[in-house]
From TrEMBL:
One Pfam family this sequence matches: LacI
Residue ranges of domain HTH lacI-type in the record: 2-56
PANTHER family attached to this UniProt entry: HTH-TYPE TRANSCRIPTIONAL REGULATOR GALS, LACI-RELATED TRANSCRIPTIONAL REPRESSOR
InterPro entries cross-referenced by the UniProt entry: Cro/C1-type_HTH, HTH_LacI, LacI/GalR-like_sensor, Lambda_DNA-bd_dom_sf, Peripla_BP_I
Keywords of this entry: DNA-binding, Transcription, Transcription regulation
GO MF annotation, one: transcription cis-regulatory region binding
Designated name of the protein: LacI family DNA-binding transcriptional regulator
Lineage: Bacteria, Bacillati, Bacillota, Bacilli, Lactobacillales
HTH cro/C1-type domain: residues covered: 3-39
Length: 326
């Protein structure tokens, strides 16, 4: 395996000159640059990234911690982050925790062992103490949405209260007066925010009908909640679900019960997944702004690795993408 010393010897220059040319730093005559880069190509030289990480105490690795990859939202979010990271010469390591504390602890240790450039956290099982420990070890963090605690580090969040308000108001404006909400687990902060937004939208139109239910973000929970309501004879004409999988499960259940969408029931999801455009009927959904979130989170990690940068708290409003279900 070729080394910088081998390249320097063939080029007749110092190893420092070779290092500067390879890393695009410092000045050298164009003929020297051309010669060094030709030798690099001829010898098929590849820098030892592990050794470089050991020297610098930092790699180009960003750890992205998510609760699962069964929900396509997280797959699309990670894909957007990976795309943005590549623009800056950074690469992504996916930490699929299954919202398991044991797995979280494993990945936290792994970040330190691999000199991670930074960590993007979107899971419920990370604590403020974890963030403190990573910071002490030189790994900056940005939490995205699912952190359920206050902390002093960087965060990027979608305004979930406003999102539920926007979605419910849209249903009302489209003529739905008996709207139900299917949100995530009861112990999540996001569920509380979404219930508040839903209720504020009802109050803004003087509607007394208020029914909200806790699912688990799966297709099955959306279907089962709707199936139970329909079998109980509950009358409704609008549904807002806190993610697209539950919305699609609810949609499937409505169709199975011969309810017409959007004439009998109007539905708004939350995620704006790619699949929303291909389901029949196409699903109206709140975009969680994955591209903007990804750009912001990578920029924040890069800035955090500069001296005297103050962590930022960024809140974005979701965007309603109207399709056939409303």
């Amino acid at each position: 395996m070729a080394t910088i010393k081998d390249i320097a010897k063939q080029a007749g220059v110092s190893t420092a000159t070779v290092s500067r040319i390879i890393n695009g730093k410092g000045e050298a005559r164009q003929e020297t640059i051309d010669l060094v880069m030709k030798i690099v190509e001829d010898l098929e030289y590849h820098p030892n990234k592990i050794a470089k990480s050991l020297r610098q105490g930092k790699s180009n690795l960003i750890a992205v911690m998510v609760p699962n990859l069964d929900n396509p939202f997280f797959g699309e979010l990670v894909g957007a982050i990976e795309h943005e990271a590549a623009k800056h010469g950074l690469r992504v390591s996916i930490c699929n925790t299954g919202d398991s504390r044991e797995k979280v602890e494993y990945f936290l240790t792994n970040m330190v062992d691999n000199y991670a450039f930074g960590a993007i956290i979107s899971t419920l099982k990370v604590t403020e103490n974890d963030l403190n420990d990573l910071e002490k070890k030189g790994i900056h963090t940005v939490t995205v949405d699912r952190s359920h605690f206050e902390h002093s580090y960087s965060s990027i969040n979608i305004d979930q209260l406003n999102g539920a308000f926007i979605a419910t108001r849209h249903l009302i404006e489209k003529g739905a007066k008996r709207n139900i909400l299917i949100c995530g687990p009861e112990d999540e902060k996001m569920s509380d925010e979404r219930v508040k937004g839903y209720q504020l939208a009802l109050q803004s139109d003087g509607l007394a009908f208020s029914k909200y239910f806790y699912g688990d973000y799966t297709l099955q929970s959306g279907y089962q909640i709707l199936d139970a309501l329909i079998n109980e004879g509950v009358q409704f004409d609008g549904i807002h679900a806190s993610n697209d999988l539950m919305a699609l499960g609810a949609l499937r259940c409505c169709l199975d019960h011969q309810l017409t969408i959007p004439d009998d029931v109007k539905i708004v999801g939350n995620d704006n997944l790619t699949i929303d455009n291909y389901y029949n009927p196409r699903l109206t959904s709140l975009s969680q702004m994955n591209e903007r979130v990804s750009e912001s989170v990578i920029n924040e990690l890069i800035n955090l690795n500069k001296e005297e940068y103050t962590p930022q708290k960024i809140v974005m409003s979701p965007e309603l993408i109207v399709r056939a279900t409303t």
